[in-house]
Amino acid sequence: MGIVHLVFGPQGAGKSTYSRTLSESENGTRFSIDEWMVQLYGPDLPKPMNLSWIMERVRRCEAQIWSIARAVALNGGSVILDLGFMKATSRTEFAVLARESGLEYRMHYLHAPHDVRRNRVLTRNAHKGVTFSLEVTPMMFDFMEKQFEPPSHMELSGVITINTDVSA
C-alpha cells in the first residue's frame, strides 16, 4: 500500500513548493488543484468571478483527482494532494476517504505570517515561476484569506507542522 499526503495551509504558505519537494523526495505523484482548474476551466472563467461556479468545478476536479490518487496509492505509490484544503471539513473528508480505502495518510500544515504570504503571492504573480498557475490579485488574496479555517488544536494532533517563514 502507498501513502496519501494531504498538504494544507493558507495561500502563500508554500504548499505548492513543499508539495513539489515532497513528491521528489517520495518519488510520488503530485496533484495540484490550481493546475487542474487552470487547465480545465481557465479559459471559461466567468467575469466577474462567480464563487459558486468555481466551487462546483473544484469539487469535480477533487472527485477525479481522488479517483486517480486512490488508485495510485492502492498500487503502492505515494500521492501528494496539494488541493488547498481551506476548510476543516475538506481536510477531514479526504482523511476519511484515505482511511476508508485502507490507506495510510499524513497531514502537512504549512504556515507563515500574513505579510510574508501576501508578499510571496505578489512576487509569484510578477515572476510567474514554476509554482505560478494563475494571478492572485490583492483583492482575491484578501477574499481567500477569510476563507481559510486554521486547524484547531485537536486537528493539529499528529500533523506535520511547518513554519515556512525563512526570517523566523
From TrEMBL:
Pfam families: AAA_33 (PF13671)
SUPFAM superfamilies, alphabetized: P-loop containing nucleoside triphosphate hydrolases
Classification via Gene3D superfamilies: P-loop containing nucleotide triphosphate hydrolases
Protein name in the entry: Zeta toxin domain-containing protein
Species the sequence originates in: marine sediment metagenome
Lineage: unclassified sequences, metagenomes, ecological metagenomes
